[in-house]
Amino acid sequence: MASSVLRVAIVLLSVAVFFGVAAGGKPLVVSHDGRSLLLDGRRRIIISGSIHYPRSTPEMWPGLFQKAKEGGLDAIETYIFWNAHEPERRQYNFEGRLDFIKFVKAVQQAGLYAIIRIGPYVCAEWNYGGLPVWLHNIPGLQMRTNNAAFEYEMATFTRKIVYMIKEAGLLASQGGPIILLQIENEYGNVISPYGNAGKAYLNWAAKLALSMNVSVPWIMCQESDAPPPMINTCNGFYCDQFEPNSSTSPKMWTENWTGWFKNYGGTHPHRPVEDIAYAVARFFQTGGTLQNYYMYHGGTNFDRSAGGPFITTSYDYDAPLDEYGYARQPKWGHLKDLHSSLKMMEKALTYGTRQNITLGDQLVASIYKTEDGTSGCFLSNTNDSVDATVTFNGIKYFLPAWSVSILPDCKNAVFNSAKVNVPTSLISVKEDASGHALRNWQWHKELVFYNLRAPDVFPAQKLLEQISTTVDHSDYLWYSTGVHVSEEDPFWNNGQVVLRVNTSGHALHIFVNHVHVGFGYGRGTFVVEQPVELKPGKNYITLLSVTVGLQNYGAFFDLAPAGISSGPVEIVGQNNATKDLTSKLWMYKTGLKGLEDLSNSPETFRWRTKGLPRNSSLTWYKAEFEAPEGEDAVVVDLGSMGKGYAWVNGKNIGRYWPLYTAPKNECSTPCDYKGAYGPSKCTTGCDEPTQRRYHVPRSWLQEGSNTLVLFEEVGGEPSGVSFKTVHNDRLCSSASSKGSGDDKQLVHLQCPSGRTISSIKFASFGDPQGSCGAFKIGSCHAPDSQSILEKACLGRESCSVSVSEEDFKSSCRLPTMSLAVEALC
Q1: pLDDT value at position 745?
Q2: What is the per-residue pLDDT across 69-85, written as a single tens digit (0 to 9) for each?
Q3: What H or E segment, with its residue span, contains residue 823?
Q4: What confidence score (pLDDT) does residue 15 get?
Q5: Contact in structure between 1 and 338 (CB atoms under 8 Å)
Q6: pLDDT for res 813
Q7: Is 88 annotated in the active site?
Q8: What pTM, to 2 d.p., does this model score?
Q9: CB–CB of 810/781 below 8 Å?
Q10: What SS3 class is residue 542?
Q11: Does residue 16 form part of some domain?
């Protein structure tokens, strides 16, 4: 790696370059050629990161942008979420977390550019892909195709967004930060099933974009047929092989997936930073000039915004900034070093010509050189298992497998994607140190009877599809019918029968004579078979169908049904005799009476204080608590609950479902970064709840008493619920004395700004075993390891210790000696 002097040079140059690009209110001409974006006629490389305004809070935005800026980003990218802004036709909401104008202004205040992806279809693991569900019920409307009704609605909303952007003066040409806009999203992935109508729609969308005269370029990601002057861009884990469809379009990467989203019932995906850095370096090595991390901060799917089905409330995405806004190390720091090294060779990358030289099997040197002699080089080893030492310009360089080295002067390797010199941070989740436990528990039962007697109950002589019926105003749709049975019925069997329901889900509660008797869930169309007991005479069969986020991706995804749309619903008895209930008269109601009462007239809600029920289905709980002291992020631990919703001070923090655990044997650890990455490659969390802790933004809490409300569907233990604080106060670092091909190695520790190293929890020089958070002493250990680290590091914000046999007294010697340290800030 670079010497200390060269490191300082990298930092100073990156700062100078950054302040050269910062938007400062002066009108800026944004154009492009086949090489890069041009800002006021100057070619630039742009490093961007996705941060979505509804997935955080306005109070979080400045801190997120500051950390993005410190991490070497030039721009922030966000979608515009149509269904959040227009939940009802021509009824708009641009307040609070949905104030995207305020968000973009905060981006500019941080000295960053903005890339706005209007879509207005966004995918984004967002409910219904960001399209308003009311579109679903407009007669004759077909989404994302050559359909006049859809195009009218899309054009109306898109023009409104562009008008708001112009009115606020946010385009670069107006002195604002917006340098790119997007129309449509990833349509090339699904266009084939739409046929000629899809191509016509694509051309219409491009004409719509151009008609709005925004004075900045438009992009269409994942669309090889993007009509000029639309710039087609790449999304994926790797985009080094991507080439734009026009010689006048620069090579852009709008989504570099830094991890992956989580589904209830699934494991936790992780993408190693070595692989991300490798992919970015390869992209710029092969002529790329703009890349965006998706996500740079994932955030939280508050309320009912998670798509799916079954996407979790957490949208952490294993991003460089975690769900709470903390820097995830070493991901954040290693990418920061990468950005600094790339900015050192910006002129060569954007103005130079490229020459590739083969140095061996899967070993390539790429040389960028300008007419005035400015140069920059990459050395890549794309072999996924074999390290190599190469000679380039008369100098030997060690290239680990699946890595790229960056040589801004074509001599000194200042960065290698596989060599991480940033400490690893670990999150600590701690009980509220102030000792304020939840108190004054109250409860209320959601009664089936009340829901079926509500004024908005309506009948139909068939089973109704849920999305069309509820228009997604709620996750819940009640189906109820009466059935008369007698001992003469062929299925009777003393009333011991099975109720069989075919449903498109996503979850289903079954009631017989107003008593909860069963629960089931599944993906796609599935069958719930529930043994029930009927009585002679009239029986009431009630089904509560529950969605868990609507589908957000795929051709014609908007037509995917939910609920008990076609059945059949059957009673199955002895000798498989059946009674079909599908065509009976069914009564319907959308939503929950309890939620309606809490929203409209909470004073009438009949809370009970005695006999707090445990493991009770369809039960409301309420408790009071004091906000945890300090400024650290806050979570509510719902690991003792089953499935439902949570509100804090009236704000919906999202769906919870800790009862849905990940499989036992699908984790892939330890993780090798080498080789092509996929979401199932590096996973953790097997046999655990996919999510048990739920983010509660600090700005949603108040001094004094706060209120937690839970709606529990299937049964849980409310006394196990607690509020906790999240800290990024643990650091790990390790290095070896031999075998890397580098000079003397250092173990480096760096606390977050304002904190110092308070203790060394583990230190071992020799052959330490395990990984960060679970280090163990191996067969070879220097007993003075702990004291040496304490002397060098305690009380300091950062420290570095040489991995050298000269500094540690060890009776054992191995070909490679390692030092592993865990510290507390």
Answers
A1: 81
A2: 999 999 999 999 999 99
A3: strand 818-824
A4: 36
A5: no
A6: 86
A7: no
A8: 0.95
A9: yes
A10: strand
A11: no
SS (H, E, C) 591-643: CCHHHHHHHHCHHHCCCECCCCCCCCCCEEEEEEEECCCCCCEEEEECCCCCC
Tokens of 203: 């051309």
Residue 416: exposure state from Cβ atoms within 10 A (0-12, 13-18, ≥19) = buried
Strand pairing class (218-221; 178-183): parallel
Which residue from 87, 473, 125, 133 is spatially nearest to 312, judged by alpha carbons? 125
For residue 9, is pLDDT > 60? no
Q: Which two tokens stand for residue 740?
A: 């890397």
Which of these three, 591, 621, 645, is where a domain ends? 591
Length of the chain, please?
825
Angle between helices 273-285 and 331-343 (to 10 degrees): 20
Distance CA 299, CA 814 (A): 45
CA dihedral 638, 642, 647, 653 (to 10 degrees): 70
Task: Tell me the C-alpha distance between 794 and 37, whole Å.
Answer: 47
Annotated catalytic, 186?
yes
Structural domains in the chain (count): 5
pLDDT at 807: 84
- The catalytically annotated residue of 255, 446, 570, 822 is 255
For 644-666, b where at least 16 C-beta lie within 10 A, e where not — what string? bbbbbeebbbbbbbbbbbbeeee
Same domain, 266 and 305: yes
Quick check: is 166 in a domain?
A: yes
CB atoms within 10 A of CB 435: 9
- Same domain (yes/no): 67, 186: yes
Band (pLDDT 50/70/90 cuts) for residue 601 is confident
From the list 186, 323, 446, 465, the catalytic residue is: 186
Contacts of 81 (CB under 8 A, 6+ apart): 52, 54, 98, 122, 124, 126, 130, 305
579 and 624, same domain (yes or no): no
**In degrees, to the nearest 5, what angle opens at C-alpha 24 toward C-alphas 20 and 30?**
70
- Which helix (H) or strand (E) segment is 163 a member of? helix 148-167
Confidence of residue 435 (pLDDT cuts 50, 70, 90): low
Domain boundary among 591, 620, 638: 591
In this structure, how many other beta carbons lie within 10 angstroms of the beta carbon of residue 562?
Answer: 25
Supply the angle between the helices 100-109 and 148-167 in degrees, to the nearest 10.
Answer: 40
pLDDT at 809: 84
Residue 329 has pLDDT above 50, yes or no: yes
Tokens at residue 66, please? 């500051």
In a domain, 80, yes or no: yes
* Pair (187, 253) in one structural domain: yes
Q: What does the alpha-carbon distance between residue 272 and residue 279 come to, in Å, rounded to a whole number?
A: 11
560 and 599 part of one domain: no
The residue written with tokens 């200390």 in the block is: 4
Confidence of residue 24 (pLDDT cuts 50, 70, 90): low
Indicate if the pLDDT at residue 20 is higher than 50: no
On whether both 400 and 290 belong to a single domain, the answer is: no
The span from the CA of 430 to the CA of 435, in Å, is 11
Question: Same domain, yes or no, for 498 and 622?
Answer: no
Secondary structure of 691-739 as H, E, C letters: CCEEEECHHHCCCCEEEEEEEECCCCCHHHCEEEEEEEEEEEEEEECCC
Tell me how far apart the terminal alpha carbons of the chain are, to the nearest angstrom. 26
Q: Is the pLDDT of residue 375 over 60?
A: yes
Give the range of the structural domain holding residue 49, as residue numbers without chain letter. 40-344
Tens digits of residue pLDDT in 516-550 = 999 999 999 999 999 999 999 999 999 999 999 99
State whether the Cα torsion 770-774-777-783 is positive or negative: positive
Decide: 506 and 519 in contact? Cβ < 8 Å.
no
Q: Kindly state whether residues 331 and 355 are assigned to the same domain.
A: no
* Separation of alpha carbons 108 and 96, rounded Å: 18
